[in-house]
Amino acid sequence: MDALGDGGIGFGRAFGGPGKYIQRAAEIDRLSDHLRPLGAKAFLLADSFVFDTMGDDLHRSLANGGVSHTIERFNGECCSEEIARVEALATAQSATVVVGVGGGKTIDTAEVVACATGARLAVVPTIASTDAPCSAIAVRYTPDGVYQEAISLPRNPDVVVVDSGVVAKAPARFLIAGVGDALSTWFEARSNMETCSKNYIASGFPAPAAGLALARACYDVLMHDAVAAKYAVERGALTQADENIIEANTLLSGLGFENCGVSGGHGIHDGLTVLNETHDFYHGEKVAFGTLCLLMLEGRPFAEIEATALFCRSLGLPTSSSPRRARPTSSVSRRRRSRPAQRRGVQWRRFRSQACATPSSLSTLSPRPSPQGHNPQRESVGVSRSQRTLHASRRDVQAWGHPARGRSEAGG
Question: What is the pTM of this model?
């Protein structure tokens, strides 16, 4: 490649990320300490759950911390109409700091408004279902939740504050959806490295070594801690595995996708948003399915596809597009799957040890040889075997108060 050739991406590199990242239980109680250095007037955009259940506590905490502020309820969709409404409110308040508190779509809207008004930006995710918080990418949807475009913003958040205690109290389905989103980070980074595709920094640069290392680290953490974190959150516990997965979903995946780019996994997600039947699935759940499709389309070794599908099934992430398989399972199907579920636990531990012990099987960037002993029929069965995809009931998720549609769910 000609490093100076017109139209080429050359041999330069660029890296981007938030100014600071803080993750600790009860950190939201210290939010004023993080906002005071950024400006005198804070405008908080909070999703409905945060507004209703934590609004008074936020008011009291910020007032005691000497931060002048206003809290506004987010209307639920990162669309042009909502962005314009919030921008007008922030401008009228002469806000010097815009703070997004809640899920991905709330955060993306706050990011767009902060850049439009020239205010500083703080992000406070209350769930770890996407890698939106750390990035300078926001995704705009129609009011009905159909993907429209990914907006490349001129800057990343000044500070990202993650209260891991709040995140761990959310239904486990949110955390697992974040794992599905983060699962794509390494596979898409590898694809973009092999095809010399650009990342999302400035006008686009080759992925730096730091970005690739973070993307790989994200994958390794998921393989090691995702299953343990799922069981801990389902039981209301905050463990080291939870902390690791929250970091992987939020920081490692966010830095990985922004500095390495995304590819087919997210492209398939974007197409799925057109279908009304997919709107009850979160962004990360659709991305996990798209990632499996990406591995198939690229002709990756069957062992890698099988291990990835088994990982998804062990967490309840979708491995099939069949609506029948996406519905909550009946008592009959649960009984039928009790013994296979135990076997999958044993199989998953074996595959996890193999994946972690032999990273070269995934990290190689050399041309891929045709897999030995390829059996298309077996491959089809292995990837599309039915599984339970929704471990958290819809009632539990609605009680938590977050909308049941993807993320604002920016490119990552």
Answer: 0.79
- The region, left, alpha or beta by phi > 0 then psi within -120 to 50, assigned to residue 268 is alpha
Task: Look up the CATH number of the domain holding residue 37.
Answer: 3.40.50.1970
Distance CA(169)–CA(335), nearest Å, equals: 28
Distances (CA, A) of 195 to 129, 137, 188, 205, 304: 28, 22, 11, 13, 20
The active-site residue out of 69, 266, 270, 402 is 266
Are 155 and 227 contained in the same domain? no
69 is annotated as an active-site residue? no
266 annotated active-site = yes
Question: Is 279 among the residues known to form the active site?
Answer: no
Residue 283 annotated to the active site: yes
Cβ neighbours of residue 238 closer than 8 Å, sequence gap 6 or more:
25, 164, 165, 168, 232
Catalytic residue among 181, 225, 242, 270: 181
In this structure, the dihedral spanned by the alpha carbons of residues 185, 321, 355 and 411, taken in order and rounded to 10 degrees, is 0
Domain of residue 38 covers 20-168
Query: Could you tell me which residues come within 8 angstroms of residue 350 by beta carbon, excluding any fewer than 6 positions away?
Result: none
- CATH at 396: 1.20.1090.10
Looking at the structure of the chain, the number of domains it has is 2
**Domain match, 263 and 335 both:** yes
Cβ proximity of 122 and 34 under 8 Å: yes
Look up residue 397 and give its amino acid. V
- The per-residue pLDDT string of the chain (412 residues; one tens digit each, 9 = 90 and over) reads 444 444 555 579 999 999 999 999 999 999 999 999 999 999 999 999 999 999 999 999 999 999 999 999 999 999 999 999 999 999 999 999 999 999 999 999 999 999 999 999 999 999 999 999 999 999 999 999 888 998 999 999 999 999 999 999 999 999 999 999 999 999 999 999 999 999 999 889 999 999 999 999 999 999 999 999 999 999 999 999 999 999 999 999 999 999 999 999 999 998 998 998 888 999 999 999 999 999 999 999 999 999 999 999 999 999 987 654 454 333 333 334 444 444 544 455 555 555 554 444 343 333 344 444 444 343 333 333 333 333 333 344 344 434 333 333 433 4
